[in-house]
Design goal:
The structure is a single chain. With 327 residues, the chain is mostly helical. The protein has one domain. 70% of the residues lie in helices and 0% in strands.
Length: 327
């Protein structure tokens, strides 16, 4: 995997360092020295390292915030299912509801929430970052179920509700709205106590908060001045590096090991560009790239947990890594 990402840059570094060493050796015979003192280059390298380090720290913060948000979605999803099973009952109503009807109500509320989780995941994976050409080397799995939401949403909603939700610009928002309407109807039927109703509405409010946090990361790209100049500074350093190394290796063993400029230049250049790539790859944690938040696996975990709480036994399998990548 590393080689599939690195081979193009390594090829460029190899050709460039060979060209610099060859030109240095040839021009030296004519008394022309194209070497550069290493001190200014090392100063540039230190400055670039600080700049890239700052960028990568901020990029990782975006990824980690996204992962914490989805951890919150997992926790509140379990809370919601527990509230549905515990609070929605016929203890406070004169309209005695049969056990089967009560189970159907529980199932609808829990299934609608599973539909919300999947709808949110699918919406977040709709690529909106139009200037992410620098990530062309990162494979996009083009998962059919994450581009066409028919299976992962329609299975948990009625046909009528699915048709309504899928026509909206933000389907996940309308699913939570429908949950609120369902709770209102249950409250009117006295199947939910007033205090319990307030608690469940508070949980729905938290779902909106978590969704909004995800959308804030999704719709606010990493500041492009940091991303652009970080890449520019790294490549300036990479271009200048062989000119400094060749001068240093010329001082060793009367220039007999000047060829060591090539492997060391390749290694140092690869390290710097890889650090830059790591930052780029962490900027947008919901784009369905290799190292993004594994929302498919998290959504499946939520589905399994909630359906098991309903007493179901025929559960889907956990999402397994594909070529060591958890989607």
């Amino acid at each position: 995997m590393v080689w599939s990402f690195a081979w193009k840059n390594i090829g460029k570094f190899t050709l460039w360092s060979i060209l610099v060493v060859a030109c240095y050796s040839v021009l030296k015979t004519y008394g022309v020295n194209i070497g550069i003192p290493f001190l200014p280059i090392s100063t540039i390298g230190i400055a670039v390292a600080f700049y890239v380090g700052f960028k990568n720290s901020q990029s990782y913060d975006r990824f980690w915030e996204g992962r914490k948000i989805w951890g919150g979605i997992v926790n509140y999803s379990r809370t919601w299912a527990n509230q549905v099973l515990s609070f929605v009952s016929n203890l406070h109503t004169t309209e005695k509801v049969s056990g089967d009807e009560l189970k159907e109500i529980h199932r609808d509320l829990v299934y609608r929430h599973i539909a919300w989780v999947n709808a949110l995941r699918i919406q977040l994976r709709r690529t909106t970052m139009l200037d992410r050409k620098n990530l062309s080397y990162v494979p996009d799995f083009q998962l059919a179920n994450d581009r066409d939401c028919t299976e992962h949403i329609s299975n948990f909603l009625s046909n009528e509700e699915y048709t309504e939700v899928i026509s909206k610009a933000n389907g996940a928002t309308h699913i939570v709205k429908n949950q609120g309407q369902a709770l209102k109807e249950l409250r009117e039927r006295k199947l939910v106590d007033e205090f319990y109703h307030m608690q469940m509405m508070s949980t729905l409010e938290e779902f909106y908060n978590l969704q909004g946090m995800c959308e804030r990361i999704k719709n606010t790209p990493f500041p492009r001045q940091y991303a652009y100049f970080s890449s520019l500074f790294v490549w300036i350093f990479v271009v200048l590096l062989p000119f400094g190394l060749v001068e240093e290796f010329e001082k060793i063993a009367d220039g007999e090991v000047v060829w060591l400029t090539i492997p060391f230049s390749i290694l140092i250049s690869w390290i710097f560009t890889t650090i830059e790539i790591v930052g780029d790859n962490s900027e947008d944690p919901f784009e369905n790239y290799v190292n993004d938040v594994p929302m498919t696996a998290i959504s499946r975990t939520i589905e399994i947990d909630l359906r098991e709480m309903l007493g179901e036994t025929e559960l889907p399998p956990k999402v397994e890594p594909v070529e060591d990548i958890l989607l």
